[in-house]
Amino acid sequence: MGSDNFLSLDHNGNLDSLSSSDMNPRNYNNTGKHSRDEPDQNEQQDDNSRITNGKGPVRKLLKTNEHDSSQKDIGINSRPHQNTPSLPAFNFTKFCYRHNPEIQNSPTHTACYNQDLKKVKEINYQISKLPIQEQSEIHHMISKFNKSNDKIRKLIFDGLLASSCFPQLSYVSTQVQEMLKIDFISILPKELSSKILSYLDCQSLCNSMLVCHKWNSLANNDRIWYHMCKQHIDRKCPNCGWGLPLMQMKNNFRNRQRKKEDQLIKNPWKVIYRDRFKVELNWRRGNFTIKDFKGHMDGILSLQHNYRLLFTGSYDSTVAIWDIHSGKLVRRLQGHSDGVKALYFDDQKLITGSLDKTIRIWNYVTGECISTYRGHTDSVMSIDSFKKIIVSGSADKTVKVWHIETRTCYTLRGHTEWVNCVRLHPNSFSCYSCSDDGTIRMWDIRTNSCLKIFRGHVGQVQKVIPLTIIDIENLVTDKNSNACTGHHSGEAQETTEDSQNVELDENIPYPTHILSCSLDNTIKLWNIKTGQCIRTHFGHVEGVWDIAADNFRIISGSHDGTIKIWDLQSGKCMHTFQGRRLEKDDHLRPNSNNTNDEENNNEQLTNKVSPITCVAIGDSEFFCGDEMGCCRMFNFENGTDDNSDD
């Protein structure tokens, strides 16, 4: 047991039985790897000189000079002799993953090396218990195997496995399972590693940052987060089911207000994803803050907003313009002689429709009325616009298409009751209208003809919205779409001889669906191509006055004083919020059966919520207007509210 030989790991992690003469640098080839193809010059030495005492440190002792008796320890991360030429990065031609000295900083490589050290200690201890002759034989076999080339090693393995019993094979399987784990992310080229990480969801990607510094650096690559944003923003990811709000205009406005030094962000796409993820999480959890806009003397009939301004039209015949961030009234537009029922605005103009039968175009920056359009014989209930075209729906049962450049107006007839809403779909040159007659009509504004009539609601239809749903395969529908209301519904049917149920041109990009709400307390989703009602939303206990929708959710406001948030894809009701409770200084509208007695009025105000007349949705907020003249904003950007009802 006095020999200076022992079982150890070489600098590549190979298990070997070496003497100090074996460790001479000339026994290494020019790649820094111990030769496996050439026989060892000291192979014929006495077997006893290879016996280890099993008590020394499990490290190689390498003489730095043949004439120097001092020795240095070679640790886990040590390299071969300094005169040995360095290897190219990731040299897997001459080295396997476990023994490649160029990736010794890899966490998996370090773990493998530590695992091997522990195993060597255990083996040395077990060998030390054997007779000297058996120790010598074991060391000789290990040394011979380590010096063999790959072909010989495989033959030795085949022979050993073929002669092994089940217990031995089970032992091999258990040992190999842990040893085969590879940190492929660290050793692959950066482009491939980034491509692999880009398939992870957000939570898995964040967890991967905690593995090691190398993984953290790869997972923080801005290209990966750009791909993550592209996959989730303004659409639902088919893999995880999450979608993030767009928030483009709002962020552009805020960026203009920031200082230049604040805009120097290391990973801008990661920050963008993080901000949008927080907003979406607040939408799902129902975390919000509330802000009220009070200034009208009567109920709010319509509202529109952008990232900075809020426009509200009221029974008091005025339009109020509010600063969303400060909550202050910026300007009040006066000119209509009756309630303002309809609003539309863009960056240049504001268009209003009123119960006084007129349409007005305003410069909302200066408050000047630019022009007034007269043509309807009854109240203007709804307007929409695109470029130089305005469409309007009226209580006179008609839809009018106004061409501003040519100063012409076309009238679309077909509805038999008030037209409550009109909506344009510019890409397909189509218009959608809904009426108190319970129908929804689809029009071609190029030919001014009716393409389809949708029947199914049993009450007055108040709102219609064209939608283009991308992920139709995962869209949840009712099991029996032809009987979604208890009546025959869904198919586009003819009511007059001059209305034709036209087959839609597949080359025209029509919306895939339309969404509608009615005073029959329901919200319906329709398939444009088939004309069928494919889903009905139940939940409100009174009529639904208004709806708004984006790519992820639907907002509905009802006469029952509640606002509901529905998931567009599944149709489930995610949250229900109460509107503003009536206060003593609120006045109920005269069309209710109320007396002028103050005590009766106070009794009605007890625990009563104001009916919701209109709603609007944004990326991180939604608005609702009530019959008492107050507009309320639910903001999900910060999400610090306790969800209390006022």
Structural overview:
The protein has 646 residues and is an alpha+beta fold. It folds into three domains: 6-184, no CATH class; 188-283, Monooxygenase; 329-575, YVTN repeat-like/Quinoprotein amine dehydrogenase (Methylamine Dehydrogenase, Chain H, 7 Propeller). It has twelve helices and 32 strands. The strands form nine sheets. The chain has a four-stranded antiparallel sheet, with no helix packed on it. A four-stranded antiparallel sheet has the order 6-7-8-9, with no helix packed on it. The protein has a four-stranded antiparallel sheet with strand order 10-11-12-13, with no helix packed on it. Helix 9 (222-232) runs parallel beside helix 11 (268-285). The N and C termini lie far apart (88 Å). Mean pLDDT is 77; it is low at 1-5, 18-89, 256-262, 482-499, 591-595 and 642-646. It holds the Pfam family WD40. Residues 14-32 have a biased composition (Polar residues). Residues 1-86, 584-604 are annotated as: Disordered. It comes from Maudiozyma exigua.
Distance between the termini: 88 Å
Low-confidence stretches: 1-5, 18-89, 256-262, 482-499, 591-595, 642-646
Please compute the radius of gyration using only Cα atoms. 39 Å
Largest sheet: 4 strands, antiparallel
What is the name of the CATH architecture of the largest domain?
A: 7 Propeller
Task: Look at the structure and give the mean pLDDT.
Answer: 77
Question: Quick one: overall form?
Answer: elongated
Secondary-structure class: alpha+beta
CATH topology of the largest domain: Methylamine Dehydrogenase, Chain H
Strand content: 25-35%
Strand order of the largest sheet: 5-32-31-30
Question: In the residues, how many domains can be counted?
Answer: 3
Q: Helix count?
A: 12
Report the CATH C-level class of the largest domain: Mainly Beta
CATH homology superfamily of the largest domain:
YVTN repeat-like/Quinoprotein amine dehydrogenase
**DSSP summary, beta strand count:** 32
Helical coverage, percent range: 10-25%
